[in-house]
From TrEMBL, chain A:
GO terms for cellular component: cytoplasm. Signal peptide: none annotated. Residues 35-79 form the Rhodanese domain. It comes from Marinomonas balearica. GO terms for molecular function: nucleotide binding; sarcosine oxidase activity. It comes from the Bacteria. GO terms for biological process: tetrahydrofolate metabolic process. Keywords: Cytoplasm, FAD, Flavoprotein, FMN, Nucleotide-binding, Oxidoreductase. This is Sarcosine oxidase subunit beta. It catalyses: sarcosine + (6S)-5,6,7,8-tetrahydrofolate + O2 = (6R)-5,10-methylene-5,6,7,8-tetrahydrofolate + glycine + H2O2; sarcosine + O2 + H2O = formaldehyde + glycine + H2O2. It holds the Pfam family DAO. Its EC number is 1.5.3.24. Its cofactor is FAD; FMN.
From TrEMBL, chain B:
This is Sarcosine oxidase subunit alpha. One of its GO terms (molecular function) is transaminase activity. Belongs to the GcvT family. NCBIfam families: soxA. Residues 172-421 form the FAD/NAD(P)-binding domain.
UniProtKB/TrEMBL annotation, chain C:
This is Sarcosine oxidase subunit delta. One of its GO terms (biological process) is tetrahydrofolate metabolic process. InterPro entries: SoxD (IPR006279), SoxD_sf (IPR038561). It holds the Pfam family SoxD. It comes from Marinomonas balearica.
Amino acid sequence: MQHYSGFGLLKHSLSHHENWQRIWRNPTPKKKYDVIIVGGGGHGLATAYYLAKQFGVTNVAVIEKGYLGGGNTARNTTIVRSNYLWDEAAHLYEHSMKLWEGLSQDLNYNVMFSQRGCLNLGHTLQDMRDIERRVNANRLNGIDGEVLDAQQVKEIVPILDCSSDRRYPVMGASWQPRAGVARHDAVAWGFARGADAHGVDLIQQTEVVDFIIEDGTVVGVKTDRYGEIKADRVGCVVAGNSSVLAAKAGFELPLESHPLQALVSEPIKPILDTVVMSNHVHGYASQSDKGDLVIGAGIDGYTGYGQRGSYGTIEHTLQAIVEMFPIFSRVRMNRQWGGIVDTCPDACPIVSETPVKNLFFNCGWGTGGFKATPGSGNVFAASLAKGEMHELAKPFSMFRYHNGALVDEHGAAGVAH
Amino acid sequence: MTQKNRLMSGGRINRSKPLSFTYNDKQYSGYEGDTLASALLANGVDIIGRSFKYSRPRGIVAAGAEEPNAVMQIGATEATQTPNVRATQQELYPGLVCGATNGWPNVDNDLMGLVGKIGGKAMPPGFYYKTFMYPKSMWETYESYIRKAAGLGRSPNEYDVDIYDKMNQHCDVLVVGAGPAGLSAALVAAKAGARVILADEQNEFGGSLLSSRETLDGKPATEWVNSVVEELSTFENVALMPRSTVNGYHDHNFLTIHERCTDHIADRAPNGQVRQRYHRVRAKWVVLATGAHERPLVYGNNDVPGCMQASAVSTYINRYGVVPGNELVLMTTNDNAYHTALDWHDAGRKVMAIVDTRKNPSGALIEEARNRGINVMVGSGVIEVQGSKRVTSVSVAPLNEDGSRVTGSVIKIGADTVASSGGWSPVVHLSCHTGSRPVWKDEALGFVPGSTVQNQFTAGAINGEYSTEGALGQGVESANDVLKALGLDAVSIALPDTDEPAQSESMALYHVPHTKPTSQAPKQFVDYQNDVTAAGIELACREGFESIEHVKRYTAMGFGTDQGKLGNINGMAIAAKMLNQSIPETGTTIFRPNYTPVTFGAIVGRDCGELFDPMRYTAMHAWHEERGAEYEDVGQWKRPWYFPLKGESMQDALNRECLATRESVGILDASTLGKIDIQGKDAREFLGRVYTNAWAKLAVGKCRYGLMCGEDGMVFDDGVTSCLGENHFLMTTTSGGAAHVLEWLELYHQTEWPEMEVYFTSVTDHWATMTIAGPNSRKLLEELTDYDVSSENFGYMDWKKMTIAGVPARVFRISFTGELSYEINVQANYGLHVWKALFEHEDKYNLTPYGTETMHILRAEKGFIIAGQDTDGSVHPFDLGMPWAVSMKKPFSFIGKRGMQREDCVRPDRKQLVGLKTTDPNIVLPEGAQGVFDPNAPIPMPMVGHVTSSYWSANLNRSVAMGFVKGGSERMGEKVYYPLVDGRTVEAEICSPVFLDPKGERQHV
Amino acid sequence: MLHIYCPHCCEYREEEEFHAKGQAHIVRPLDPDACTDQEWGEFMYFRKNPRGIHHELWVHAAGCRKFFNVTRNTQTYEIKEVYKVGEKPTIVAE
């Protein structure tokens, strides 16, 4: 793999950038792999990267029906934080956070992870109780967090209207200084480049149309472009399509796929340094390095695979943003879009064995998938390498919906499901 | 300053109305009818901005929505600052103040330009992914410089002074775009009597006809436009909307229109007027007549001010009477752009050359150019221009047949303006918003709308039909298609004769080759706003970014505020060539709303501030206001939180309220509790199914507390339900949960048990509820009623009908404080009257109003839970220590029964709700504190449950708390520790949650 | 923005008046106590969630408060049919 650096850029500029290596190969798939990962989004690529790099499993293919990182990786609002309430979720997301903190250097690819902090605002007494509860849990779990009052919030974000005459005044917030944002596309590309360098075959524009299952054990996949490809283990990481693939393998998942919309303003000069989220007025915002205000809210109520939702959701989101930041009233919305999020009943993911042997699913991240990318890939890789679930993944078995051991993170999920 | 580029005559400007405006602190003048862009060009302003990455000087390129460069900061005051307004779409008004968004110390001499010049070579696409990684700690420093350099305009720092409106509209057909196709479509639909909305983003209707010199029926085309607009305005079934951009096309033919009502008058709307209005339109049918944008060609240094779209040059000449230069070189792949050279020539300025990339162009327009003595250079291209702040000369070279390489020697021609045309790109954006993919049409050299599930027709240039005659015809055709779908008779109208010369075939050329390879040639810009070059796109492809989406994301092509209207197709063509594919194989990226940016305020309308969410008040609110209550938001309700006396702290007030209630009598406004009237012969059975406890034997006149669970067995609401009659019950719910509970009941009734005869009606707002609690509450009640309220006649958990203060009331003897207590319900409009009547006895009984906080303290002293505070959706009744509220023996398997018996729900070490007594009685545990058994354990510490409720109890003179503890019900008397944020660790003993009057004697008097 | 025909009001109304309530035709087991944990979990949580034709339950929440079924394409968002609770759809996925 060609090493990237500022020096390299200067050197290549002398040869007019004509000699850069391909970032990844475009291989024809082999007949058989040790592991096939279905889905070349951030989680799938991270899985492949860690499988090859950390666990030494390099005979791996990632099969992607479109282009790498083209699903929710390309559509999210890039927030990274780990201040989840329950131990199980907190440990998983904090595992991810720690990987984020060295990711650019590990990948030799600048994913522009920027720890500008995240505020989760409280607007009611119950919000503040929940914030206290979560921050206390975070701290005892070794995750940074503070409870701020309205005055302290105002000091961090002076443009936030914290006055008491708003409809739902800001009473305080939780503050995770290590939280932040990253450049979403770069995450997929960085993992893809790293995986490719370790010998993983990245197969794009190829759809897995079925599984080959013998005696309840998966032995490969059928693709639209290359026919059958065999594998000892298959991991599915196909957010927005998980139920469809599960149906092909003969089982249902406790998922509903909903549109999740986001929008950006036109680029403006730096004015918002942190991530500000509010469950209660229902909107969140940060500002990208390019200057866009990146804004999101909740999911649409109906299920949908159309990568678009209803205009009413956008309206409500902007009402919330202007309610929080009245100075943005004259700023203009540039573009809106939607992703498809697979939501679980307890707002926590499924990283799990399935009723089919050697077939594993990693799905159901709801609105919280991007922040988990390295951690999810890492524990899924460990599980695929060993054929048994990683300790951090165990609480997220799909079978918890049978015995009732749910991990209810609706409060911490950022947006209501 | 004189308007050196203004023609003596012509254009649609009002020369009798000169206007002055300020750009970058300097005064200029223009005319009414100008756009800011045409006025700047008239004044010879070349540089209107600096590019985002290389800080190169930029000029105006286009004349409409596709303009990438002229993005200005507008506003005369701080509160009216508006970032990123496109000068080509901003009408000039007197006193307009604007400035460039980038450039230091100013836009003409920007120091960042040096950085761009020196460092530009090391800043290919994606350079930031390849650097700024080491040392790790430096990233945020690097990033702060990147952030400073980015961004266009700035947000205002003050609140918006303008107001915005929203309007819902319905129509039979929404015609988008009022060019020749849209006008003819609207006229046909109007004549048939259909309800028509005709919307166009420009200040006047006419579209392309406003900018050309063509004739219709032998007269200037605008005369035909005027006659059609005049005719349309006579129809009552037609709404004409100029300055109204259809920005989004959503599912089921829902479209949004952004109408700018006063932006052409001033930066602040005149008093009483709305600045912008957002229309939410449900259209039975849509006719998209959105036209096409001209594609400029991609060549070396094509961003130097003076390089423009050919059609824009014509627009400035014909519509605004402005010639944006002196010496023109036109480069074209088609006949149509010859109009620009003719317009320029006829304006009296010099056409240095027409550079036609085709080998043998022929036709009337070419002849006309030659006849005027214009030098037509065929089979050639402008491969680069020279000049830094304005074009000074151009390099022209012969090209091979398909335009892929330079075949001969380069000649230089002096010129200050280069107009280029690579053909047209249909404006397919709206048609793509609902997921329809556009399809490539070879004859049109552009993407046209693909198949759609929406009720949509298209007409004119959007279909690749670029002639006026064709557009007019398709307008009529599409409108008749709509009429047919609506079941209306077809209408025919007389279309005017056009005078368009026949045109020969255009050449498919997007990127003009240079003598040097693209990577070494001068920068050839594809997307001006994001500084995306042809070399950048080629590099992306070389690096393996082969999907057009990857190219777009890696180079940032199309991510600007113009969303790639000019550059996208050129970029795709360049990528296609690199990848040895056709353009349709390469595909296009997806267009999303908005077509052009929309003010947040316009989308928000009035739905912010106090109208952000409706506020609900109780009937006694005015009284609470008078008494200076502090409020708590509970759902949409404003509930009194506590009633401080002058100079009293919150804790003082709470202590006083709590003591007064337990010593004499307190009163709470409980009107916000949800109330659902339930009737029907199966009502009782229904209650038994939705509550966890038994209801079969509840007698008329009795009340009972119940827990409501989901199918998972987890508690989600609670409340008291009273039996009003054998088949009649009144259910109460939590204040915030009422709507959800009602929908829950309806869900089960309508979908699972429709055979049951039961009816649910929300009566929350019908009743005002006041709770009087305390040892003197009976005496107080007796002051207002003749009814026998003695314990013998009116026992605990009974309810009675009586007259109170002269009005009929239902009184429930239930208690959430553990005191003798009555909940008085009267018709809401009598609420304040009864409340005041009670307060006539204020002094006698020290009647003390209390709010939600005292209510919480009083109930916590008694160990009563609050659903939503002591529950979180993950606890069942046994976790709450409330097995008495569950009847496992009921014949019907009630909702929640099966769920609470799942494997994980019967673990003995689940977290259970217990009382918590701090060892130091003066410490009040923070709610949300997390408990541990071993305070010395290392982090991560095993947590055993959190504090849900915790207060200072003035009655007990110590703190009281409740919380969850793992296996807590078996750990009575054991210690649990709470390591707090401030570093303290608080020790507490696990105890019964009932701190006061454990035998319940106080409420049974 | 969906435009939904309420079969009880017999009118098209805006999406904002309705709430989506998930997959339709999920029948509560007649004898919950006889269900295994797995069966009960499947009833509560496991869903078809198809891409394409989907039968879903909606409620006219800010209207007549009636529940009804909608057959909708979850890819194109086209509503193919609405029908009352207790009725069977005439349009089903192949």
